[in-house]
């Protein structure tokens, strides 16, 4: 009986609750005087940094102590630029711009919601993105599970075909299409609202924490497997 090839795709999905909330935000300003807006952005950024030092004393260490709500925190240098004309080609009223970008990772999602609420009370701060993540250890472990499940799925499919054909099959080639295991889950849009500016150190009850509902992270596996029929002897 001639050899028969069976090619199937095995797929899998494993879901896990996020372990980190990744927050990216920027301090931005524009105005008629370059020195003034640079000073304003620097002043607010210094206040932000002092606030985050209380949440994450070791700002550059992923293994910050478990009692700290923030695991990492970093910022860029100040960026300044000028745009003398507006979109219509007319002289811009506020041609000078300045910004500093920040990134942070939270393990405490309730604290993250509270912090975002404080950030959005500043007219010069914009939340750029919010992503839900896994730790590297968990991501690697779940990716391994997903790969194994995908291969078992492919084997089951091949055995189903072999049963109908009344043949036996064995795998001869496996191609992994998992593409890194999982992707971070982003919120559809970053929250935006502004109120009167307050100090970060303030515990004012009027500063509302946002209701951020973490979405489960899907870790997927995908393999293409080629099977060949084998004789009973």
UniProtKB/TrEMBL annotation:
Residues 65-96 are annotated as: Disordered. It holds the Pfam family SIMPL. This is SIMPL domain-containing protein. It comes from Penicillium antarcticum. PANTHER family: SLR1258 PROTEIN. Gene3D superfamilies: Protein of unknown function (DUF541), domain 1, Protein of unknown function (DUF541), domain 2. GO terms for biological process: DNA damage response. Transmembrane segments: none annotated. Residues 71-88 have a biased composition (Polar residues). It comes from the Eukaryota.
